[in-house]
Amino acid sequence: MHTMIPEGYKSLLSIYDTQKAISLLKRLFEDRLGALLDLYRVSAPLFVEENSGLNDNLNGYERPVSFDILRSNHRAQVVQSLAKWKRLALKRYGFFPGKGLYTDMDAIRRDEDELDNLHSVYVDQWDWEKIILPENRNLDYLKLTVMDIVTAICDTQDTMQAIYPQLQRLGKLERRVTFVTAQALEDKYPELTPKERENAFVREHRTVFIIGIGGKLKSGKPHDGRAPDYDDWDLNGDILFWDDVLGCAMEISSMGIRVDPESLDRQLTLAGCDDRRALPYHRALLSGELPLTIGGGIGQSRVSMLLLGKAHIGEVQASIWDDATVRACEEAGVMLL
User: Fold this and answer.
1) Is 48 in contact with 76 (CB distance < 8 Å)?
2) Which of 103, 136, 179, 200 is placed for a possible disulfide with 44 were both Cys, Cβ 3.0 to 4.6 Å?
């Protein structure tokens, strides 16, 4: 979608109150998420070594921002996600099953192909990862984890609305999660695009988790792209909420149970990425040296938009925008940070 400010939109909070609210919101959510999932905060890298295999190639076409380091022989890449780094960190830090970590992840998506109300070249999210046992690699465990994340978001909203009563005009998010597979969505709406399916289904059910993203559906196309070397495509998905301000589904989190040696082996072949088997991270995973985990990313700016009733992501983060976006926001009286 292109940048579109809803008619009559006016921010519920001033610029100053917005900044204070974002800071409070992030602290509240981090504490609640950490308590519900048993996660501990850690520091994370902004960049990794280019040849380490730790960076994420996302959908396969996004170019990472890279640079050379003057006083070394290394080239570095700004992270596009921390999915692989987190799993390695859990082993290095000596975490046990049932325990996990979370951190801030900042990324630059230079090849973002749509700058609009929800998309920016700057990505900020909470990245989290948790060690699980072999018997946890199932849909029931995935669903319980999804419900805990939704609870953390809804609890944060309740506190924010108590502190800022004007936010009560937004109403409450739906705490009950409706689970649906990507294939069931395609079967239900065969004539719609994946994004149109999401809007149609989430409009009705309000809070939704779409299961099974990355693998091909009956149509021969995946619901959405997902790298083959972090999520198990049968045990992953996206959390979406209905956003009344924009009148669309808002994806808040991509997450899932991570690949084990068997699913990594299968997905590398399906994705035509067998060359990655030689990378240090992939060798360690294929040989069973890394712990089994579940993890994901939760968009900080997206959560801030949703809970503060903002119409544009530029109201809660500082980035660079194309001329059309700047004009649309200026004409509507929306201040981009």
Assistant:
1) yes
2) 103
Q: One of 157, 254, 300, 304 is an active-site residue; which one?
A: 254
Whether 254 is catalytic = yes
Catalytic (active site) residue 277: no
Domain tally for the chain?
1
Cα(82)–Cα(126) distance, integer angstroms: 10
Q: Is 52 among the catalytic positions?
A: no
Residue 1 lies in a domain: no
Q: Report yes or no on whether pTM surpasses 0.85.
A: yes
> Active-site residue among 198, 231, 238, 243?
238
Confirm whether 41 is a catalytic residue: no
Q: In the Cβ-directed half-sphere of 242, how many Cα atoms lie within 13 Å?
A: 22
Residues 284 and 5: their CA atoms lie apart, in Å, by 48
Task: Identify the CATH number of the domain in which residue 150 sits.
Answer: 3.30.930.10
Inside any domain, residue 3: no
Q: Write the pLDDT tens digit of every residue in 74-123.
A: 888 888 778 888 888 999 999 999 999 999 988 887 766 677 888 888 88
Q: Which residues of 138-190 form beta strands (DSSP E)?
A: 178-181
129, 198, 243, 251: the active-site residue: 251
As given in the structure block, the two tokens for residue 200 are: 């149609």
Instruction: Say if 22 falls within a structural domain.
Output: yes
Euclidean distance between CA atoms 231 and 222, whole angstroms: 14
Residue 179 inside a domain? The answer is: yes
- Which one from 87, 109, 137, 206 is the annotated catalytic residue? 109
230: containing domain: 15-332
